[in-house]
C-alpha cells in the first residue's frame, strides 16, 4: 500500500461530494426550467397581472390584501 496525497479517504470524500453536486445540478436545472416557463408566460399582460397579484401580492389602488395562512 502506498501513502500518497490521493488516499482512499480522499477518494471517498470526492465521490460523495461529486454525488452531492450532481443532485444539486439536477435541482438547479429544474428550477431553471420552471423560471424559463414563468418568464415565457409573463410576456402576456394578463398573465403578468395575475402573477404579480398572486405571487408578489401587488395590489390595485384603494384595495387591501389579506393573506390567510393555516397552521
Notes on the protein architecture:
By secondary structure, the chain is an all-alpha fold. The chain has one domain. It is 63% helix and 0% strand. It contains two helices and no strands. It has helices at residues 8-41, 45-55. The longest helix is centred in the middle third of the chain and has 34 residues, at 8-41. The mean pLDDT is 85.
Order of helices and strands: HH
Proportion of strand residues: under 5%
Counting structural domains, the number is: 1
* Helix proportion range: 55-70%
Assign an overall shape: elongated
Q: Termini distance?
A: 59 Å
What is the number of strand segments? 0
Low-confidence stretches: none
- Helix/strand-derived class? mainly alpha
Compute the average pLDDT: 85
Instruction: Outline the biggest β-sheet.
Output: none
Number of DSSP helices?
2
Which features would summarize this protein structure in a list?
single chain, 71 residues, mainly alpha, 2 helices, elongated
Question: In summary, what is this structure?
Answer:
This protein has 2 helices and no strands. The chain has 71 residues and is mainly α.
List the helices and strands and how they pair.
Elements: H1 8-41, H2 45-55
